[in-house]
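Exercise (ungraded).
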Amino acid sequence: MIGREDVVRVARLARLALTDAELETMREQLNAILAHIDALKAVDTAGVEPTSHAVPQFNVMRDDEPRPPFPQDDMLANAPDRSGEFFRVPRIIEE
Amino acid sequence: MRASIHELTDAFKRGETTPSKVTDAYLARIAMLDDRVGAYITVTADHARSAARAADERYRQGRPLGPLDGAPIALKDVFCTKGVRTTCASKILENFVPPYDATVVARLARAGAVMLGKSNMDEFAMGSSTEHSALKVTRNPWDLRRVPGGSSGGPAAAVAAGLAAGSLGTDTGGSIRQPAAFCGVVGLKPTYGRVSRYGLVAFASSLDHPGPFGADVTDTALLLGAIAGHDPNDATSLDAPVADYAAGLEQGVRGLRLGVPDEYFTKGMDAEVERAVRAAIDVLKGLGATLERVSLPATPHALATYYVIAPAEASSNLARYDGVKYGLRVPGHDLIDMESKTRAAGFGAEVKRRIMLGTYVLSSGYYEAYYRKAQQVRQFIKDDFARAFEVCDAIATPTTPTPAFLLGEKIDDPLAMYLNDIYTCTANLAGIPGISIPCGLSSNGLPIGLQLQGPHWSEHTLLNLAHSYEQSNPLQATRGMLK
């Protein structure tokens, strides 16, 4: 069972500003889903290699040739806020 | 408006009609019916008319680009389309206009296909009913009180209602096959790596598969042939030749071994679904396939495995929506506050739930117990299929436990919604191809889907089986039912 403080911690890690009501609903629903998922703990997986991709490919190489990049203006066109050729963001470093 | 793509393009070649006339007819039908079905988020009428005029000209000169030239199709709104809004049915991308085309979009355009529009889906492809779309409701054309399935509910409903001749969707845990079953159309999830994911808005990168919906198996084969193949922009796409899927459909099924897994015919399955699927298996047996009893013992753990791995990958992929480079931004007093408010306002309840679940199973102290464990059980699921395919060429199962459910029926119970993926998510975990084809109607007139799954790179076998079945048991097309 996960408690409210776990939900608050995970929401902070996930950068989700959840309301009190959302935190409570999330706690209930995550517990219900985790109760189902917890069945995995009973499976004996000793010595089994974890699978990250079903059809594994390793070291896919390509020629190191320069290609024209997307135009800067195209890449900035969807920016919520820009300043010239930069994405503008709120202050990160305290004065 | 009941025509398939191959019938339409044959008619174009014979000069009986033109891509422009057919495109106009589809656009008129969308204008007349789509406020009731809700298949489209964005209709690209100008784009479609201009592509159709170019196709007209190619037919006039006797030089069509191939069997898809002039075919009117819909694209799930998860594929980036240059200059055309791509929302992923999310508030966070509601006004996003991509600077490039997804590889599959570019390939369809090069084949001459005419994009009618971008179709509805569960937000970020997370869901099994399309009810998690933040932008609109899509209804099942067979019964407008019911869901079309999901997450590719829009593309499936568009084909079923005759609002597109074919379409593309994505399948991360059943999101092509389940809506195909609910809407009575054909839907195929290819082998992982067969079709490029470049330009697809990512949900779970090791499980996402783009694939086609068709009104019949031939159309599905033609669409797959156009989008399959190596793409240097997707390092997981396989560099291997693509079969001529449509040319291999007449081979027949004599001698093919069809596996029937014990674990997929369990209690809780709808009796009418079981009857229809067993009858379809008997049809294939009658056509010359042999039946093999197979066992996939890890199946009971598949759903739990899937609902660890898919949310974990989603929580990582969706970290990019931070209000900086594109998408919604909600102001905040510092960067973290801005990000947290943006994501809280931009994501719907199901997306938040999956991000939370994924963040939890990846977080310090829980990684070993959940994420690593699920990756190990994923290996068992792969091994099960590998063993089964030593004694059979394809596996036949139902696509879904029940036919389409009512709008609102499962929306408040996430776990009940997740159970829709119980027969389909194994193929995503193992990376194997699967197809859903209509195999009958329930007593209340709803389509039922037969699922065929095969080893990696066996799409031609699945299409051949599906086509043989379809020829002996033509689907009862719903298109044209809506007046």
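Further reading is listed at the end of the chapter. For now, observe: Strands of chain A lie at 82-83, 86-87. The longest helix of chain A spans residues 20-37.
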